[in-house]
Design goal:
Elements: H1 20-49, H2 57-78, H3 86-90, H4 94-125, E1 130-131, E2 136-137, H5 139-142, H6 144-166
Antiparallel strand pairs: 1-2
Helix pairs in contact: 1-2, 2-6, 4-6
Length: 185
């Protein structure tokens, strides 16, 4: 497997190659979280049915779930797969398109900054309560929020800078998002 095999090549003009290894790593972490969550849920069901429950399963499931969600948000931001007003912006050209692309990403950036600030406060507060039965501080789970916020902010700034420099419209001949894999059935 190539090191960048999980990096989406779509909208390449909005991405810095230096961040490709990070996107690849985030996709690997998402896969680990989905797999880990599924395996632990399955094991929890089986052990409960046999009368020997895993007391730690709920904690591990929650960790895989939260980190999977928040790391997935960051990966989706880099891949430009998150939900925002893309259809409205894509239907425009010129200065109106530039305004709406920046507006959309400005909203995402504002949310990322809130995730960083309030997530960090929540992280600090998480040292006051412990998870049972492991006695791990809740901060271990809450750390996923500001981490994701930093990554979302980084990827949003990356898109804004490259969109300003190269435009937001994909170059001619580049595959469009909805058409990728369309004829593979």
């Amino acid at each position: 497997m190539r090191f960048d095999s999980l990096v989406l090549q779509e909208q390449r003009h909005l991405k810095w190659r230096a961040l490709d290894p990070l996107e690849n790593l985030l996709m690997v972490i998402c896969g680990i979280c989905i797999t880990g969550f599924s395996v632990v849920v399955f094991a929890d069901i089986i052990t409960r049915a046999t009368g020997h429950p895993l007391f730690w399963a709920q904690e591990v499931m929650m960790a895989f779930f939260l980190y999977g969600i928040f790391i997935g948000v960051a990966a989706a931001t880099r891949r430009n797969d998150h939900l925002y007003l893309a259809v409205l912006a894509e239907s425009m050209t010129g200065p109106a398109r530039l305004f709406f692309e920046f507006f959309n990403r400005g909203v995402v950036l504002a949310v990322a900054l809130c995730m960083i600030y309030f997530g960090y406060l929540n992280f600090l507060d998480g040292f006051k309560s412990l998870r049972m039965p492991s006695m791990t501080p809740m901060a271990a789970l809450y750390a996923s929020i500001p981490i994701a916020g930093v990554l979302v902010a980084l990827f949003t700034i990356e898109q804004m800078v490259n969109g300003w420099r190269h435009g937001f419209v994909e170059p001619k001949g580049a595959p469009h998002h909805e058409s990728i894999g369309g004829g593979v059935l």
